[in-house]
Amino acid sequence: MINLIEVFIESVLSRNIALIFILGMCPLIAISTNVKNARGMGLAVIFVVFLTAIINYPIYLLLEATGTERLSILVFIITIATTVQFLEIFIEKVSPRMYNNFGLFLPLITVNCVVLAVSQFFVNRSYNFAETATFSLGAGIGWALAIILIAAIREKMEHHSSVPRGLAGRGIVFIVMGILSLAFIGFTGLSFF
Amino acid sequence: MRKFWLKIQYTKWFNITKDGLFKENPIVVAVLGICSALAVTNRVENAIAMGLAVTFVVTASSLVVSMVRKVIPARVRMITYMVIISAFVIMVQMFLEAYFPVIAAALGAYLGLIVTNCIVMGRAEAFAVKNPMKYTFFDGIANSLGYTWILIAVAIVREALAFGTILNFRVMPETWVNWTVMALAPGGFFVLGLIIWGVREWAQNFEVAAE
């Protein structure tokens, strides 16, 4: 149990998937222009990352048993695309309100590298099922935290600061992310027990 | 000679190549494919390997997409691209693991993540699906070389500051104190941000209208 808590804290803070592993940058830069959209995208990512990781885990065991783990990327990406498509239809039918909140971002998620990366990381780090579930939840939350933080900073920056024109728009996001990333490195070595 | 040069400047393939390398550089202008551009650029050799891997995947997959573009139904095109792209990525992964195990280990999971590199998908969707194979070939090469040269530029700055070396040759004086943060994620963010600033200022290509 203590191990699981450690995996969780680590994946949200000190090994944040967006700011330390630098993954999922394209949507992070494209959608962080306002907090509302960032929140929708963040929620969608948490949901999809968790779901695909727990689906991909048994599939990987199956691939391993048949000796075809080379194909894991191909299989993972098909699982992810199918899950996302299915989820989109399901949410649209069940709850239109929820669909308006984050369903619109679902099609974009197939090409978000966070989803595939989480599936690859549990293979590389040889996590068991409980650790995979915790890690994927933490990674999703960490990514959502990063995009919401950046969106909030960008919203403020738009009105209260003058950015050099060469950096305006997407350029300044890199500097913001660099500073945030320094802050998240500060969490390294954090321990509760 | 001058006449020949002028003639070349108006051919379609020359313009496609120029756009990919500078005017519409995927990293600086479109800001795509950033994940690997930052994550693997702490050493120049990793940047070169990643650049070549992406070049191969983009060119080969765009060619195949362009070849089958008339038989893919529009509704399932995304997943078709994904299958084509991941087939090539698995090829690259197996090749590097067999011949360059050290580099394959250094690139780690980021090698497999070429599948979700937005440049590959972006080229397939924006260019290959609408154009014949010969132009697609130039477009693929130009865009991925545009990506590669930015990667190498970032890596040269980061490796020199973080380890005092470039391609393992010592370039900084012996008294140089290694700037460790440059090898970590923040260094990548800062260096790429400054390079984007520099290139945009040089090319006078801004996102906001000048006041």
Largest sheet, spatial ordering of strands of chain B:
1-2
Q: How large a portion of the residues of chain A is in β-strands, by DSSP E?
A: under 5%
Instruction: Give the % helix of chain A.
Output: over 70%
Order of helices and strands of chain B: HHHHHHHHHEEH
Number of helices of chain A: 9
Shape of chain B: globular
- pLDDT < 50 stretches of chain A: none
Major β-sheet profile of chain B: 2 strands, antiparallel
Instruction: State the oligomer.
Output: heterodimer
Class by SSE composition of chain A: mainly alpha
Structure, described:
The complex is a heterodimer of chains A (193) and B (211). Chain A is an all-alpha fold and 193 residues long. Chain A has one domain (2-185). Chain A is 75% helix and 0% strand. Chain A has helices at 2-14, 25-31, 35-65, 72-94, 96-102, 106-109, 113-124, 129-160, 171-185. In chain A, helix 3 (35-65) runs parallel beside helix 7, helix 3 packs antiparallel against helix 8 (129-160) and helix 7 runs antiparallel to helix 8 (129-160). Chain A starts with a helix and ends in an 8-residue tail after the last helix. The model of chain A has no long low-confidence stretch (mean pLDDT 87). Chain B has 211 residues and is mainly α. Helices cover 69% and strands 2% of the residues of chain B. The radius of gyration of chain B is 19 Å and the shape is globular. Chain B has one domain (32-210). In chain B, helix 5 crosses helix 6, helix 5 crosses helix 8 (118-128) and helix 9 (133-163) crosses helix 10. Chain B is built from ten helices and two strands, in the order H-H-H-H-H-H-H-H-H-E-E-H.
Short précis:
The complex is a heterodimer of chains A (193) and B (211). By secondary structure, chain A is mainly α. Chain A is built from nine helices and no strands.
